[in-house]
Specification:
Number of domains: 2
Number of strands: 19
Oligomer: single chain
CATH topology of the largest domain: BirA Bifunctional Protein, domain 2
Length: about 500
């Protein structure tokens, strides 16, 4: 028994055959439009303001989103990349043959229309059609009542339908492009040079994460999709770039959640002769700049909260934050065994294989992060949590690192970068010794260590999550809402 959807598709196929039988190509090669719908509406408003009627005809094109027929007149709404406009068809103007061809059209078809602008008695900007052309026949009906659809997975799997039917979703992705452009502008104006570094790497370094593995046939060796941009960018600092950044896709073979995706977009920047204090100032200035340019204000809604990005942001030491929110002073527990015992006394469940650094990270996630709604820097982390960061000047047990949080999410991570090649090697080796065969760990990149031996100047480094920034600026609760084609499990 055929479904209603199959019936509707069959009716459209029958219309397609009738169109072909008339000698009309339902998928022509091109169409010369003179204006977008937004430009047409603006032109009409200028005509009305000047009280002059311009006789020239316009050519518009777009997808049919609504159809209303009343005897010898018909109204269609079309939408293009800029907006929508109403089309007005009259039997007297088009003639019988052309007017009857409207019967072959359906919602979802793409048409080109030529005609003159006017405004209806109800005040709607419209184009009176003198001719029209079918540009693409839609064989699948658009979803009905799309805005009430609760099947979010279908929106992700068929993003094109989401974009066709949900103007708000499309605006969100347009905003994403604007945000990335603004980040580039901010850094470019401050002398940073944008570069590209390898996605396929022989060593998966620069972060604590499990990589994706692939095989290169010609080289006959395994390669890794990068888990971070860091190590190649710091090679460029060694090579003489003073300020460098990259915006690129990063891949981690880990869990999926509303804030985590196996592929995501990172901004990483490195500034010679700077430390983490300089990078704090850079980040808060950059993010507040993007907010002003993209949203018109440094204050905006995210969920149930009003976020205020006005610098300076609050600064709290990590030790103080954990102590305030869960009562643990990690300086009182200098090793894994003592900290694990204290967490067990609190009734916390955690992976028993985690070392001290990972346990502290667990405390941040459970107790601290959910409370960090307004922008805040947590700074000065235990050394074992950050093998690529320089030790704090007055406390060898800590490193000069900060993480920035907004809306309960980590949005950035930064270091005063370790540039001592001997200490860097020792840190990597110590981590290997402590974590054994754990896949989620920093590995020894010999070429990176060799680069450091040629001398890297003092340097401040930043890694910021583009997707999470877009979530904030577009008020989206899930990372899948800001990635056009998020990873989903394949349906059988």
């Amino acid at each position: 028994m055929s479904t209603r959807l199959e019936h509707l598709t069959q009716k459209r196929l029958e219309k397609l055959e009738k169109i072909r039988a008339l000698g009309i190509n339902p998928y022509p090669h091109s169409y010369q439009r003179t204006h977008t719908t937004q430009e047409a509406v603006a032109l009409l408003e200028r005509q009305e303001k000047s009280q002059k009627v311009f006789p020239q005809e316009l050519s518009l094109a777009g997808r049919i989103m609504a159809m209303r027929s009343m005897g010898k007149v018909a109204f269609l709404d079309i939408r293009d990349g800029s907006g929508k406009i109403q089309l007005y068809f009259r039997f007297e103007l088009l003639g019988e043959e052309k007017y009857e061809f409207l019967r072959h059209l359906d919602i979802g078809d793409i048409v080109g229309v030529r005609g003159r602008l006017f405004r209806t008695k109800s005040g709607e900007a419209s184009l009176e059609a003198s001719d029209f052309t079918l540009l693409a026949k839609s064989l699948q009906p658009l979803p009905e009542k799309w805005h009430g659809l609760v099947d979010v997975e279908k929106r992700y799997r068929q993003r094109y339908l989401d974009l066709i039917s949900n103007a708000e979703a499309k605006l969100g992705f347009i905003r994403r492009g604007q945000i990335i452009a603004l980040l580039r502008r901010f850094l470019d104006e401050r002398g940073f040079v944008e570069v590209e570094t390898p996605v396929l790497q022989t060593v998966a370094g620069g972060a604590l994460a499990r990589p994706f593995v692939t095989h290169h046939q010609a080289l006959n060796q395994d390669l890794y999709l990068r888990i971070a941009l860091e190590l190649h960018l710091k090679r460029l600092i060694v090579g003489g770039f003073d300020r460098v950044y990259e915006i690129g896709r990063t891949f981690r073979n880990e869990g999926i959640s509303t804030r985590h995706s196996p592929e995501f977009t990172m901004l990483e920047s490195y500034q010679a002769y700077a430390d983490y204090e300089d990078i704090m100032s850079l980040l808060e200035e950059m993010v507040s700049y993007v907010a002003r340019e993209a949203l018109g204000d440094t204050k905006f809604s995210y969920g149930d909260n009003i976020i205020d990005l006005t610098p300076p942001w609050q600064r709290i030491s990590l030790r103080e934050a954990i102590k305030n929110y869960c009562g643990i002073d990690f300086e009182d527990y200098p090793d894994t065994v003592s900290l694990r015992r204290r967490m067990e006394e609190m009734g916390l469940e955690f992976d028993p294989s985690k070392d001290r650094g990972r346990l502290i990270d667990e405390l941040i996630s459970i107790f601290v992060k959910p409370n960090l709604i307004q922008p805040v820097f947590l700074f000065d982390y235990p050394a074992e949590m950050s093998p690529l960061a320089k030790r704090k000047r007055d406390n060898e047990r800590l490193v000069e690192r900060f993480e920035a949080f907004i809306g309960g999410m980590e949005i950035a991570n930064a270091f005063t970068e370790l540039n001592d090649p001997l200490e860097q090697r020792q840190r990597f080796q110590q981590q290997l010794k402590e974590r054994g065969s754990n896949e989620d760990m920093e590995v020894v990149d010999e070429d990176f260590l060799l680069a450091l031996e040629y001398g890297m100047p003092p340097c401040g480094g930043l890694g910021a999550g583009i997707d999470r920034l877009v979530m904030l600026f577009t008020n989206r609760p899930s990372i899948r809402e800001v990635i056009l084609f998020p990873q989903l499990k394949t349906k059988e």
